[in-house]
Amino acid sequence: MKRLNRHDFPGAVYHDRVIQFGEGNFLRAFIDWQLDWLNEHQGTDAGVVVVRPRNRDVSDNLNQQEGLYTTLIRGLNAQGEPVSESRLIRSLNREIQPYQQFDDFMALARQPEMRFVFSNTTEAGIAFTETDRLSDRPASSFPGKLTQLLWARYQHFDGDKEKGWLIVPCELVDHNGDMLRTLVLRYADLWQLPQAFKRWVDTCCAFYNTLVDRIVTGFPSESATLETQLGYQDRFLVAGEVYYQFVLQGPAALFDELKFAALAPHVRHVDDIAPYKAQKVAILNGAHTAMVPVAYLAGLETVGEAMNDKQIAAYVDALLRKEIIPTLDLPADELNAFADAVLRRFRNPFIRHALLSIALNGMTKFRTRLLQPLLMSHEKTGQWPQHLTFALAALIAFYRGESADKSWPLQDEPHWLERYSKDWAAVSTEQLSLFALVGRVLSDAQHWGQDLTQQPGLVETVSQHLQRILAHGMRDALSQRR
Question: Keyword Oxidoreductase: yes or no (predicted)?
């Protein structure tokens, strides 16, 4: 069976217009997949040159298949029906390894048609390294490499205002575009580059704040069967879910030039990304965090099992509709549509998402994802939200680490593991009441940002839920909620 190459599998070729820092699965199933569709259907003509940002001796790179690879998009459509679609991606032209091909890397700055920069270098990638130098081949950090390219472009085109770049970081960092711009200008200061260059970066380049969302599972386990169906070998085959969202805050130029409007509503150009970030954190991440202890203590193992369980699915749905969505700022119909999509994603039969894998650092996740909706719901209604307080009680029960018939691993910060181990042992010997246990958890102002025991009625509400969970089991406790 032939491996993918452009001779045996001829097709469209696009001009180099995009530099992409990062060769990983996510960008290939997200950015490059979108650009490929836009190239075909909108005539965008956006060819991608991948820059591998880390110094690794990698012989197995995308050039072996001349940039070609396949995406396999699988999940549930808007009607809840399973769908699976493969696409041969032609938007990616080649890969450059800047540590071994520094001259080729710097030559990208001199290509007149080069216009866009996308990146995903992980959350740790947008960072400043004091020891980086302009003369390095290349600078060690991603922002340092980008500054090297921008300075070279500025020099080569003599500060031409039309040769600025639209720069789109996809790292999961708040205000990622603003942060990257700040670091580029910081490198300009470190390297004593002229003020005129800094003005060019400020006025002729644009840095976008972004929110990206798609589950990408990588190389599928059934690859041999898939390759037989496709008729070729593909070492870079990548699988992802049907759903995707790309929210961009910045000048309209990017949206217009790449014709992203054709991908609406999945791709949005907004004035303020914050409400969309809050939507994702509260609805998608928050539903995960609330679901995990409830579903696991009900005897389930995966997200899919939880969403196919009528009792658990009804609990998650009610938590979203009644208690989380009313606390968010976007229009209700938009929030409910997002919740519908989230619940479909949770039911994706092609993804096995273990509950215990999501349970990591559950205490911090509850604080960052669900505490604000819990407090805001109480502020709006004068009542403690029953689903959110139940989730908090279930989380405390989960950190017991065992039940009558099984035990499970706990992964969190050491001080939480030590505290729960000690306090649950004291509860088992009747040296500590459940009310006191809940009070000890909620009084940790360093963790919660405030002493939650000062919120009237909260300790009592959570303690009542916890008492029912321990006395009657998770399913009966769910049924007994008011």
Answer: yes
Would you state the structure tokens that stand for residue 314, as one six-digit string?
């009804």
Going 226 to 21 to 152 to 112, the CA torsion angle's sign is positive
- Quick one: tokens of 226? 């898939």
CB 265 within 8 A of CB 377: no
Whole-angstrom distance, CA of residue 453 vs CA of residue 378: 14
User: What pLDDT is stored for residue 219 in this prediction?
Assistant: 85
pTM over 0.85: yes
Task: Find, among 348, 338, 334, the residue nearest to 217 by Cα.
Answer: 348
Domains located in the chain, CATH noted: 16-270 (3.40.50.720), 274-480 (1.10.1040.10)
Which residue is associated with the tokens 């579903």? Answer: 295
* Alpha-carbon dihedral angle through residues 93, 97, 101, 104, given to the nearest 10 degrees: 30
Residue 481 has pLDDT above 80, yes or no: no
CA–CA distance, 269 with 261 (Å, rounded to integer): 9
For residues 422 and 376, give the distance between their C-alpha atoms in angstroms, rounded to a whole number: 32
Cα separation, 425 vs 421, in Å, equals 6
Distance of CA 226 to the CA centre of its chain: 27
| Distance between CA atoms of residues 222 and 229, nearest Å | 11
How many alpha carbons lie under 13 Å from residue 190 in its C-beta half-sphere?
Answer: 19
CB 274 within 8 Å of CB 210 = no
**Quick check: 395 and 293 in contact, CB under 8 A?**
yes
Please report, for the chain, how many H helices and E strands are present, in that order.
Answer: 22, 13
Given a cut of 90, is residue 56 above it in pLDDT? no
Neighbouring residues of 332: CB distance < 8 A, sequence distance ≥ 6 = 325
Q: How confident is the model at residue 480 (pLDDT cuts 50, 70, 90)?
A: confident
| 39 within 8 A of 91, measured Cβ to Cβ | yes
| Residues of the chain above pLDDT 90, percent | 94
Residue 258 · residue 46 · CB < 8 Å: yes
Report how far apart the first and last C-alpha atoms of the chain are (Å, whole number).
62
Q: Sign (positive/negative) of CA torsion 119, 121, 124, 129? A: negative
